[in-house]
Amino acid sequence: MAAADVTATATAPGAAPPSPLRAGVTRAALALVPVAAAFVVGAIVLAATGWDPLSVYRLMVREAFGSTAAVESTLAAATPLIFCGLATALAFRGGVFNIGVDGCFILGGLAAAWLGAALTGLPGWLLIGVCVLAGMITGAIWSAPPAYLRARLDVDEVVTTLMLNFVAVGIASWIVNTALLAQGTANSASSPIAPQAELPSLGGDITLGLLLALIAAAAYGVWARGSAAGYELRMTGLNPAFAQVSGIPVRRVIAGAMLWSGVIAGAGGAAHALGVVHRFVDGFSPGYGFTGIAIALLARNGAIGVVFASILFGALASAGSTIQLFSDIPLDIVDVLQGTIMIFAAVQVVDLRRRIRREAA
Amino acid sequence: MIGQVLAAATLAATPLLLAALGGLLNRRGGIVNIALEGKMLLGAIIAVLVSAKTGSWVVGLLAATAASAFAGLLFSLSITRLGANEIIAGLGFNILLAGLIGYALNDQGTYQPDGLSTLPVIDVPGIESIPWLGDVLSGKDPITYLAWFAIPATAWFLASTRPGMRLRAVGAAEDAARALGLPTMAIRDASTVAAGAFAGLAGGQLALGLVGLFNQGMVAGRGFIALAAFYFGRARPLPTAAACAIFALFDAIQIRLQQEGLSTQLVSTLPYLVVVIVLTLTAVQAQRREATA
Questions:
Q1: H or E segment to which residue A284 belongs
Q2: Chain A, window 59-98: residues with a beta carbon less than 8 angstroms from a chain B beta carbon
Q3: Which residue of chain B has the CA closest to A188?
Q4: What are the residue ranges spanned by the domains of chain B?
Q5: Is A46 among the domain residues?
Q6: Start-end of H helices in B106-141
Q7: Is the CA virtual torsion B59, B65, B71, B73 positive or negative?
Q8: CATH of domain B2-292
């Protein structure tokens, strides 16, 4: 399965390096194509059901960015998406088609919620640190089997990671309905975490989780562009055979990419459990991992792109729930937009590669 | 009690079997179809809508098959003509179809219109009263029998017909097939349309046979279990059908366990876990063979 298809970056080997500014502008413009296509499809759906698309979109923009509170809830909604987008982008950059971010996010959240409720004696900063670390380790553990299978035995990671998502949902659901089931609740929820484990608010709905997400994004961006390991990751993604002969330990790079992807996803789950849900519940992730795929695609695996694309999807989610409340437009319109963005982003990657090849020729 | 489990498993196997056979054809043509889930959901809602409108389950199922075949065509064109990555496009179609259906139903969740014509049940005289065998073979809807018939038919199609062999050629060696003058893209499209049709019929059977209503969550991962089944069966009809039977048995046991108060959540993960294990064992085997060669 040509994983490299989704991991093309803006410069191909042998191509004359375009100026960074122009490359950035081109990249941003290309990312807007699937988004624009999605809004056209969404407009058709809205118009067909008797809504004026323009006024709905205007309302959505206002609900997402029109006031301080709106911006805060948009950024809060973007927080788990930044983690999942980064986790996916890191793997994609290395040519690893990891679609198991959702499972790592869920189990990372479960681990953090469990420790957050169990270690009530610890002071806040230590407890938060322990919980986030537990989430990261859990994410790494969950991505270890497919990482090993891909790196050592060449087992297609698409299928294993996809399947393990369902296994993660089942295991988490089992644990939260048995060992961690909170007393006195109807079902499917763990005990609330200790108050000092809750991530402090940075204004409105925004918590420390957003800061952690942005730090992760910055670290990823610097690491991917400025370090030897980041270079090895990119070379492995672009052309594993070439990377191998130039002395890059391709198998180790691939395994590392999947493990770190799990670490970031697990941290995201922990931040979501500590910052937003304050416990673990069935249905903890409404598919953040899959939105993360759309985000990584739009961002072409870049750190800044991931942040902006996450804000876009956060805005859609946040405005979507508000307009459902006030104007009776089903929240599913957000899924219509997201699905369309994914389809067009999947199409567009190849167009970009063709363009590069033409430019290089 | 064993009879009840067998009867439940046989019922549960039908939608898996249909969707998996469709996915298998597609896989043989070189496309991994992750969008079976969404197309089953589309088939389910169309079957319920049209069956209620026309009062005929036959027309309902035909409409479901056609609608999902059309969705399959769009999916295929995005891959073969626009070069979309099949996995991302497949996930995108799943989200898009679920979103469109949810939007159209306006979050009602369950939809059970009046005048719904559901699938009839055929009792096979002579067999129905035999314990165990009767539970499996008798008292099923026509689509279940059709699905059984589709197993040898698919095997025969792939092994012994000209289109079947062409499909395999395209999947196994696209460049060689193109060099021979085969319309590789059109053949791929046809296999994706077929996968859509099978998935649509599977969704229709699920809605009109097992329950007689539409629910937004009714497909419940069956499209992905079908994917697991044809991966387990390495895209060969008989092993794939066997995988569907095993997974359906898990499903039936799970319903039992629910009554016993045991963990249904863990049993529900078994099909997915089995696929990971099978892929691992296959890879270990391949590596051993390589090492000895």
A1: none
A2: 97
A3: B265
A4: 2-292
A5: no
A6: 133-137
A7: negative
A8: 1.10.3470
